[in-house]
UniProtKB/TrEMBL annotation:
It catalyses: sulfate + ATP + H(+) = adenosine 5'-phosphosulfate + diphosphate; adenosine 5'-phosphosulfate + ATP = 3'-phosphoadenylyl sulfate + ADP + H(+). Its EC number is 2.7.1.25. ATP binds at residues 403-410. This is Adenylyl-sulfate kinase. GO terms for molecular function: adenylylsulfate kinase activity; ATP binding; sulfate adenylyltransferase (ATP) activity. Residues 12-162 form the ATP-sulfurylase PUA-like domain. Pathway: Sulfur metabolism; hydrogen sulfide biosynthesis; sulfite from sulfate: step 2/3. Keywords: ATP-binding, Kinase, Nucleotide-binding, Nucleotidyltransferase, Phosphoprotein, Transferase. Belongs to the APS kinase family. It comes from Roseisalinus antarcticus. GO terms for biological process: hydrogen sulfide biosynthetic process; sulfate assimilation via adenylyl sulfate reduction; sulfate assimilation, phosphoadenylyl sulfate reduction by phosphoadenylyl-sulfate reductase (thioredoxin). Catalyzes the synthesis of activated sulfate. Residues 395-546 form the APS kinase domain.
Length: 572
């Protein structure tokens, strides 16, 4: 590939003119509307502003099939990621082919319209296998596909009315054409993009410097602020960290812009997708490092993708992507030379001390309030991270008891609450099954749908408590593993989630029958009774499993307290 030079002419957007948009907005108010999910809003923004050029809307069935099977749309254009409008079956039934629908954000604002040309039920297992490499729900996008995405896909061209509004970091957000105009104005002919979803530390700075030098290019720090991997550092903190690091780059050669992309963590395919998106933003080069957009381990505990699979796939399609890859190996600190070097280029590795702090180790040090050395990161970045992630013993957390009715959840939860209040330091809230059903969920019954809603409500309140530094103790039956996992994800964004399975057997619960409900359930007077006529998914790997049959309440509560102590959540 010859050294590429940008063609900075504007790329097509899907927006109509201001006048037409005002008219269209009024007309669209009468259309059937779809309230988009956060992921769909991210996708729509990049469709409308040309970030996903040459896509003209959400994929139709033929394009979807091609993209899933061989990364190509029906006309042969390279596109590795299915950009689909997934909806519920109920909504899909209200939509006819050829009909226009309004696409609304979560506050109800109409952002665009779509003419529905296709409607189909996708084979999600095939999509998982082909796009993400395995139908394994340990992969966040596969989990999303099976548990959060609607069961029907709608496809068709989109007409853009207005951009989603962002109130945060406005000056740092640019459409592809705004970035192109900026590069044009600055006379930047070669631009290397650095994609990231993590705070920048010294190794990243070294890597980006080297990449810019190698490509003889200017540098665009292009972090993703849409949706990243569950559990990542939130984007507010990250952007404050980026701002701090940006001062350490020469202002005339480097800039930063925020990308509202919803990542899929699809490794190799994601790298190709990122390349196409960066091309649309006027970049000529992109850095692809080790384990680009990696989702972590699969359910067998192995990596989903090889560390350099993304680089290999990118290389295969590089000419078509039109954005040259600057590939980087892992950067490590060489103590004797006091500098970062690519791990594979160190020839005297037996004679030098090589240091590295992994993401997991960094999280541990932050959680435990331990030292983070200067060679690893910048003090400003560490301060920001410490502000958002104080040591675990000062963070909020949730203890989530689950088990059959009458298993002893409420009694143990009460005892734990009292012990924690005795210790003091953080406010404690008990969200017991019965209390919640009186106050938050009084209109709900015990169907799967209602139980899920009930647990999601408990999860929502617990996540708010956790976010604000309190302790939430929940004690519902919560019979469904997928719902418990969803709640875990919501809460782990802010603090620890400690699942405690109160493993009293159904026989024992029935024998105790404290409320006389089992008798009624056996007699068929209470329907859908957990363990009798309704399912209970036994937690596979809770943080703690309590056997209650020969142990008293005080001892069970004590085991919970010991667990919290061993996790560093309460001071020993
Ligand atoms: S769930 O599944 O998590 O939403 O259930 P939860 O909110 O914890 O409510 C369980 C309490 O409601 C009583 N109850 C029933 N439980 C299970 N199945 C059926 N059909 C049912 N009908 C009423 C029961 O007393 C549960 O209280 P606990 O505290 O668990 O004994």
């Amino acid at each position: 590939m010859n050294m590429p030079i940008t063609n900075l002419a504007p790329i097509p957007e899907l927006y109509v003119s201001y006048e037409s948009s005002q008219k269209l907005k009024v007309e669209a108010a009468d259309l059937t509307s779809w309230d988009m999910t956060p992921r769909q809003i991210c996708d729509l923004e990049l469709l409308m502003n040309g970030g996903f050029n040459p896509l003209k809307g959400f994929l139709n069935e033929a394009d979807y099939d091609g993209v899933v099977e061989n990364m190509r749309m029906a006309d042969g254009t390279l596109w590795p990621m299915p950009i689909t409008l997934d909806v519920s079956e109920k909504f899909a039934e209200t939509v006819e082919l050829g009909q226009d629908i309004a696409l609304r954000d979560q506050e109800g604002v109409i952002l665009g319209t779509m003419t529905v040309t296709d409607k189909w039920v996708p084979n999600k297992s095939r999509e998982a296998e082909k796009v993400f490499g395995a139908d394994d729900q340990a992969h966040p996008a596969v989990y999303y596909l099976h548990n959060q995405a609607g069961s029907v896909y709608l496809g068709g061209p989109v007409t853009g009315i207005q951009q989603p509004v962002h109130y945060d970091f406005r000056a740092r957000r640019d459409t592809p054409n705004e970035l192109r105009a900026f590069f044009r104005k600055m006379g930047w002919r070669r631009v290397v993009a650095f994609q990231t979803r993590n705070p920048l530390h010294r190794a990243h700075q070294e890597l980006t410097f080297r990449a810019a030098k190698e490509a003889q290019a200017n540098l665009l720090i292009h972090p993703v602020v849409g949706l990243t991997k569950p559990g990542d550092v939130d984007h507010f903190t990250r952007v404050r960290c980026y701002e701090a690091v940006l001062d350490k780059y020469p202002a005339s050669t480097t800039t930063m812009s925020l990308l509202n992309l919803a990542m899929r963590m699809a490794g190799p395919r994601e790298a190709v997708w990122h390349g196409l998106i960066r091309g649309n933003h006027g970049c000529t080069h992109m850095i692809v490092g080790r384990d680009h957009a990696g989702p972590g381990k699969n359910s067998a505990g192995e990596d989903f993708y090889g560390a350099y699979d993304a680089q290999d796939l990118y290389r295969t399609y590089q000419d078509e992507i039109g954005v040259e890859m600057v590939d980087f190996k892992h950067m490590v600190w060489v103590q004797e030379r006091a500098q970062y070097e690519p791990a594979d280029e160190i020839e005297d590795r037996d004679n030098v001390t090589i240091l590295n702090i992994s993401g997991t180790e960094l999280r541990r040090r932050l959680a435990e309030g331990l030292e983070i050395p200067e060679w690893f990161s910048f003090p400003e970045v560490v301060n920001e991270l410490r502000r958002t992630r104080p040591p675990r013993a000062q963070q909020g957390f949730t203890v989530f008891f689950t088990g059959f009715s009458g298993s002893g959840k409420s009694t143990i939860a009460n005892a734990v609450m009292v012990k924690l209040m005795e210790m003091g330091g953080r406010p404690v809230t008990l969200l017991d099954g019965d209390i919640v059903r009186k106050n938050l969920s009084s209109e709900l019954g015990f169907s799967k749908e209602h139980r899920d809603l009930n647990i999601r409500r408990i999860g929502y309140v617990a996540s708010e408590i956790t976010k604000n530094g309190g302790i939430a103790i929940c004690a519902p039956i919560a019979p469904y593993a997928t719902t418990r996992r969803a709640v875990r994800e919501d809460i782990e964004a802010f603090g620890a989630f400690v699942e405690v399975h109160v493993a009293t057997s159904i026989e024992e619960c029935e024998k105790r029958d404290r409320k006389g409900l089992y008798k009624l359930a056996r007699a068929g007077k209470i329907k859908e009774f957990t363990g009798i006529s309704d399912p209970y998914d036994v937690p596979e790997s809770p943080e703690l499993r309590l056997e209650t049959e020969s142990v008293d309440v005080d001892n069970c509560a004590h085991q919970v307290i010991l667990k919290l102590e061993s996790m560093g959540l309460i001071a020993g």
